[in-house]
Structure to design on (1310 residues):
């Protein structure tokens, strides 16, 4: 007689080593899991809470400068190296892994206005208030050798900014005009002008490397083409633009940091209106830098905070501040998309995580899977009020908080006034100007 | 036309109008006005007045007509320059024009009788003026102007056509084509065809044009990234850095060719390598390997390899087995092993004897030698230490006795001078065919064929087990097969023995402590393992209670059990083993009876009663019934859910034996609370609460006496108790086990999305996206990984360079080829409709109704028990 018994192949349930996880056979029939939504919701809520609990973005502060940090530059080949220039003309090179200054140079008299590293990472350039452009070696001098620049170019006017070409030995400075220099020569290859004003910053496009963008103090942003040595177009905004940054993944997109507390992302082909207006700061935006993935950017503001904006969102996803951080003058996003560096008035450079709650270090595969899952859950349930409330909660210093409130009131009042005006005047006489168009004064061909 | 602007010499419209006005307005009180006030004609003017403003244009056209007629010849030439020409020709034509006008005026005048007098006077004046103009007063008249002119000199001198050019070709126009000047004309025409160089633009404008052109070309250049950018924005997953460095392995020959041995050590190594013909260059096989490769076909090689593998596996298996066997401490086992070896050797020897007598003889000699040695040594006499100890022990121990007997037998055997004698220690290989089940199967694994090398043999017959104990006495090697089997089952028999002994002990124990309920189960649990026992054990253990139970059980087969036994009925453990179909049928009968009992039980049975019944006989009966019970198909299939008197009982899946047991336990545990009744009560309450209540507007004391003890009249109550319309039927009225609350749950609302979030267009989309779970609890591992794949992957410590043309394949920079449209390298741009809201791309629909996260879904909540 045959007796049927339940029997299973041990291969299906016996683990190979005792360190393995127990294999749990599952039935995925949805009819058997009626509470999936509720369970996932709970998980999402927990993930959100944990994210907030673990959000400790501040990593360290690099101190050593004796004046406010005015400019910074990333090393193009080394992630652990960063350069900074201060308002007393001092340039420091930092090692981020050791969090130490590895070299100090008295580069200029007066401010170091701008600095940039050469694309190969062997040398870097600085410009200062002493009307000079200096090229320095990246590695420190040998024992007994003098700390001297490789080249020094004496100019007629003060240079306010510098940027290096991404592929060729060419760099651009700005001041009264945009000068494009060959590294080998002491006079500019060509000078690009359009009107007369002091230009505060110039940036090479990282993808179409012959393109340049600059912003001047007569409130305009000018684009140049290096090949034709001609300006291309000028867009005039309501207020002055402090600096701009090109998107490293999208050739025609750049973002301008404006004095009117906003950032404007432009498509250079359609300058009539910005693609996106990013508003959240409560004081002038002083610097902006794109993440190397081109999905987000970080902005430094006079309101003593830095904010991270997604490129396609009008508001920031993150705000970083500390009690001691003063007006942030310069900010950089490291090339591995992990960290953010900001230099501020009170002489410190701060290192932040780009993703506040990210766990640093090597992750086990299970950790990684859990992280991805949590991320997905947060994304899925982001519209639920409880989760959104937790996810969006940030602590702000009182000054910023109050200013935000104040500005909200002002904006509301302005809006109301406009509404009233429209209501009480002839239809069509008070046109509805979209927010994107409001800030553009003109586009000059 | 310019000629209209320049005042014609003689007939100025202002001059003409003035006298006419003077004549036409005598009746009117107004005084003759100046030229400037011409337009204001008094209303009291009788008859249809000829409107004064009409006149000058008419005249003008007329004048134009005459002029054109005059100059028809001129006009045939260059039409483009007509105005200039006119200016040029105007001066000489002036006088003639005036005359012509007069004529025309006369013709017009004759047509209308009423204006005759007026016209006559006017014509007269015109004539006078014309004459005066001819007489040289022309210049003075000219200075009298009414319209703006560019050329006015302070001396009232106008130079007609001052800015005009005199074009030679026009002068030559009237020349007859045949004349000698024809060649000149041709040349002139040729000169005219040459376009003049335009003036250079101003510097500013020139720059602007350059800028515009540059901007257009540059934006077009940049625009070639459009596709790439869009694709990246839409991509499900982006992996950075975009350019993944693929670790390329440089071929060995390249590495070696670039490298040369310099140091003596290196040279030595190289020399050695070359000596052994170790190939450094391409084919990477030694000469021998090459030869072998050539010698053997692929099939053959594969075959051989498989063989080798098999051999290796077998070898390792035997090694393992030998090791295992060696570790076994059981003497009995080793004895058996020895015996079997002996037998084996004997068999072999016989075979050898048949096949090769010479070898067999030699072997025999050897064996004889061995035997002799054995005999001499007298190892098997009962003189040794061990033998003596056995002799002492033999009084008490069966084993020892047996061993002694064995030894004696052996001794006898050896002392006899026999021709054929199996040697004791014969080196022979391990038996291959009959592998005794060395690892004694444990209880758990015995049930599981997977755990064993081969399935366990069927349980031996009880007779066979009883037998070996007696047969172990070594009589002779008469029946080898039988012997072998005996050997095989010996160990099992031994086990059985132990088992029995233990059972005896437990039986006794049971007899002593009948009160313990736990003991009941023990024999039952053992039951399946020691299957063959019952008949034998009932003989042996006649005094113990268990067999009496067995006996009783047989008696009580057809009896109906008292209702107190219902709890134990759920269990179905028995003592005896059911092996044959007849047994099964018997069981089925019993089953039926039990079934009936079970059905009867709930009606009558209560635990309290059961407690009361404490008699031993009862317990016995209970035991028997539990033990007799067994799974049968009918029991499983026909087992109806127990019918409760409540219609709203939640359906419980009828389970097998184990489930019933479980259920029994649960019933016992939750005997006190009647969940179903509770639920019904709750539902009734909910229904009551949902009913609309009548509004009581009765004011006691209004319109009648009020006070303590006084009630408002029924009439009033009837009037002022307002009954609301009946509520719509409840949704759960046909669902007895569900309460559907249609109230909006405020606590849940705090967790729900109140308005449709941005990328979604319909709330169904959103709900669908919510309903699809992503966790590994609900998805297979693969699906889970896919669903939770991060949008952006970066590698720690890698610098992400800006995108460049090299990252985009099929693009020659500068060749004008469009970037994008193609798949990117290192980028899983798997387009799964990601651009659309997530809800659209939901893979699977679920039949389950999502509860919690419906968008602005209807606030419906289901409470199911």
């Amino acid at each position: 007689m045959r007796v049927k018994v339940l029997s299973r192949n041990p291969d299906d349930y016996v683990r190979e080593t005792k360190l393995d996880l127990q294999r749990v056979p599952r039935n995925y029939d949805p009819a058997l899991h009626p509470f999936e939504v509720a369970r996932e919701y709970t998980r999402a809520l927990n993930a959100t809470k944990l994210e907030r609990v673990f959000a400790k973005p501040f990593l360290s502060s690099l101190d050593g400068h004796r004046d406010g940090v005015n400019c910074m530059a990333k090393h193009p080949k080394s992630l652990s190296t960063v350069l900074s220039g201060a308002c007393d003309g001092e340039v420091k090179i930092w090692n981020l892994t050791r969090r130490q200054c590895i070299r100090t140079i008295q580069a200029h008299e007066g401010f170091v206005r701008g600095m940039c590293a050469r694309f190969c990472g062997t040398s870097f350039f600085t410009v200062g208030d002493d009307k000079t452009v200096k090229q320095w070696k990246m590695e420190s001098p040998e024992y007994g050798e003098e700390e001297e620049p490789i080249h020094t170019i004496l100019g007629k006017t003060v240079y306010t900014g510098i940027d290096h070409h991404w592929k060729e030995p060419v760099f651009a400075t700005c001041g009264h005009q945009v000068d494009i220099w060959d590294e080998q020569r002491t006079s500019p290859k060509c000078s690009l002008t359009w009107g007369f004003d002091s230009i505060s910053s110039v940036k090479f496009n990282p993808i179409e490397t012959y393109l340049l963008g600059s912003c001047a103090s007569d409130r305009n942003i000018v684009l140049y083409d290096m090949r034709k040595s001609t300006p291309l177009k000028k867009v005039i905004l309501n207020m002055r633009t402090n600096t701009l940054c090109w998107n490293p993944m999208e050739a025609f997109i750049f973002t301008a940091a404006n004095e009117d507390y906003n950032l404007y992302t432009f498509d250079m082909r359609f300058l009539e209106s910005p693609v996106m207006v990013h508003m959240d700061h409560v004081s002038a935006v002083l610097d902006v830098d794109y993440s190397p993935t081109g999905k987000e950017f970080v902005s430094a503001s006079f309101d003593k905070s830095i904010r991270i904006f997604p490129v396609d969102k009008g508001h920031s996803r993150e705000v970083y501040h500390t009690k001691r951080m003063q007006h942030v003058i310069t900010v950089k996003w490291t090339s591995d998309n992990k960290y953010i560096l900001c230099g501020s008035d009170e002489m410190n450079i701060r290192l932040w995580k780009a993703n506040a709650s990210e766990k640093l270090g090597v992750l086990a595969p299970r950790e990684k899977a859990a992280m991805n899952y949590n991320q997905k859950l947060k994304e899925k349930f982001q519209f639920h009020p409880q989760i959104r409330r937790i996810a969006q909660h940030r602590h702000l210093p009182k000054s910023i908080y109050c200013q935000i409130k104040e500005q909200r009131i002002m904006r509301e009042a302005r809006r109301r006034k406009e509404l009233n005006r429209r209501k009480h005047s002839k239809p069509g006489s008070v046109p509805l100007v979209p927010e994107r168009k409001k800030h553009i004064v003109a586009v000059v061909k | 036309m310019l000629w209209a602007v320049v005042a014609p010499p003689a007939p100025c419209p202002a001059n003409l109008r003035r006298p006419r006005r003077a004549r036409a307005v005598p009746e009117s009180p107004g005084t003759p006005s100046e030229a400037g006030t011409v337009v204001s004609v008094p209303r009291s003017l009788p008859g249809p007045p000829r409107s004064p403003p009409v006149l000058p244009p008419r005249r003008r056209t007329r004048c134009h007509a005459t002029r054109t007629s005059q100059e028809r010849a001129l006009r045939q030439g260059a039409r483009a320059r007509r105005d200039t020409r006119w200016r040029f020709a105007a001066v000489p034509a002036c006088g003639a024009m005036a005359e012509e006008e007069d004529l025309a005026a006369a013709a017009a005048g004759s047509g209308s009788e009423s204006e005759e007098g007026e016209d006559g006077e006017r014509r007269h004046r015109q004539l006078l003026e014309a004459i005066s103009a001819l007489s040289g007063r022309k210049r003075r008249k000219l200075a009298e102007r009414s319209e703006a002119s560019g050329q006015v000199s302070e001396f009232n001198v106008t130079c007609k056509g001052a800015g005009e050019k005199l074009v030679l070709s026009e002068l030559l126009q009237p020349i007859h084509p045949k004349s000698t000047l024809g060649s000149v004309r041709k040349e002139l025409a040729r000169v005219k065809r040459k376009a003049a160089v335009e003036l250079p633009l101003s510097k500013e404008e020139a720059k602007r044009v350059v800028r515009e052109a540059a901007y257009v070309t540059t934006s077009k250049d940049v625009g070639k990234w459009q596709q790439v950018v869009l694709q990246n924005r839409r991509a499900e997953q982006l992996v950075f850095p975009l350019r993944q460095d693929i670790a390329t392995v440089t071929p060995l020959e390249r590495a070696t060719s670039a490298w040369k041995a310099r140091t003596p050590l290196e040279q030595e190594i190289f020399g050695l390598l070359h000596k052994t013909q170790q190939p450094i260059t391409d084919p990477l096989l030694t000469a021998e390997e090459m030869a072998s490769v050539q010698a053997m076909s692929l099939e053959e090689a594969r075959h051989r390899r498989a063989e080798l593998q098999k051999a290796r596996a077998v070898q390792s298996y035997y090694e393992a087995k030998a090791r295992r066997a060696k570790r076994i401490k059981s003497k009995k086992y080793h004895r058996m092993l020895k015996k079997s070896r002996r037998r084996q050797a004997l068999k072999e020897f016989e075979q050898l004897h048949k096949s090769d007598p010479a070898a067999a003889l030699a072997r025999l000699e050897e064996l004889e030698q061995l035997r002799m040695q054995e005999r001499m040594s007298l190892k098997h006499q009962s003189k040794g230490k061990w033998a003596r100890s056995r002799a002492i022990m033999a009084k008490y121990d069966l084993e020892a006795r047996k061993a002694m007997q064995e030894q004696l037998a052996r001794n006898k055997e050896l002392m006899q001078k026999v021709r054929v004698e199996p040697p004791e220690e014969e080196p022979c290989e391990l038996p291959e065919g009959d592998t005794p089940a060395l690892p004694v199967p444990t209880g758990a694994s015995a049930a599981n064929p997977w755990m064993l090398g081969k399935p366990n043999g069927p349980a031996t017959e009880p007779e066979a087990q009883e037998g070996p104990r007696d047969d172990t006495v070594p009589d002779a090697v008469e029946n080898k097969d039988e012997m072998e089997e005996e050997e095989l089952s010996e160990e099992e028999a031994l086990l059985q023995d132990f088992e029995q002994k233990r059972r005896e002990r437990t039986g006794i124990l049971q007899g002593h402590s009948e009160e313990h309920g736990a003991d009941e189960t023990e024999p039952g649990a053992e039951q399946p393992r020691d299957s063959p026992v019952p008949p034998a054990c009932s003989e042996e253990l006649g005094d113990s209670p268990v067999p009496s139970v067995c006996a009783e059980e047989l008696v009580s087969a057809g009896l109906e059990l008292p209702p107190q036994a219902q709890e134990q009925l759920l269990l179905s453990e028995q003592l005896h083993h059911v092996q044959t179909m007849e047994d099964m049928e018997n069981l089925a009968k019993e089953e039926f009876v039990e079934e009936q009992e079970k059905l009867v039980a709930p009606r009558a049975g209560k635990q309290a009663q059961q407690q009361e019944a404490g008699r031993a006989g009862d317990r016995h009966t209970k035991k028997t019934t539990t033990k007799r019970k067994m799974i049968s198909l009918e029991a499983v299939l026909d087992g109806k859910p127990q019918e409760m008197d409540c219609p709203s009982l939640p359906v419980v899946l009828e389970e097998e034996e184990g489930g019933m047991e479980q259920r029994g336990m649960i019933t016992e545990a939750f005997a006190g609370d009647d969940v179903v009744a509770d639920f019904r009560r709750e539902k009734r309450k909910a229904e009551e609460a949902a009913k609309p209540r009548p509004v009581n507007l009765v004011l006691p004391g209004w319109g009648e006496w009020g006070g303590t003890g006084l009630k408002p009249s029924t009439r009033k109550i009837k009037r002022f108790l307002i009954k609301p319309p009946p509520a719509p039927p409840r949704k759960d009225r046909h669902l007895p086990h569900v309460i559907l609350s249609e109230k909006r749950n405020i606590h849940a609302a705090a967790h729900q999305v109140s308005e449709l979030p941005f990328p979604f267009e319909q709330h169904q989309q959103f709900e669908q996206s919510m309903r699809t779970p992503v966790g590994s609890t609900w998805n297979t591992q693969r699906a889970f990984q896919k669903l939770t794949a991060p949008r952006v992957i970066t590698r720690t410590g890698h610098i992400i360079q800006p995108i460049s043309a090299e990252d985009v394949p099929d693009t020659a920079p500068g060749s004008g080829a469009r970037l994008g449209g193609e798949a990117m390298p290192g980028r899983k741009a798997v387009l799964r409709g990601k651009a659309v809201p997530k809800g659209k791309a939901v893979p699977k629909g679920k039949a389950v109704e999502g509860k919690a996260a419906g968008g602005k879904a209807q606030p419906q909540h289901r409470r199911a028990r």
Summary: The two ends of chain B are 101 Å apart (CA to CA). The CA atoms of residues 196 and 585 of chain B lie 125 Å apart. Strands of chain B lie at 238-239, 695-696, 721-722, 738-741, 792-793, 861-864.
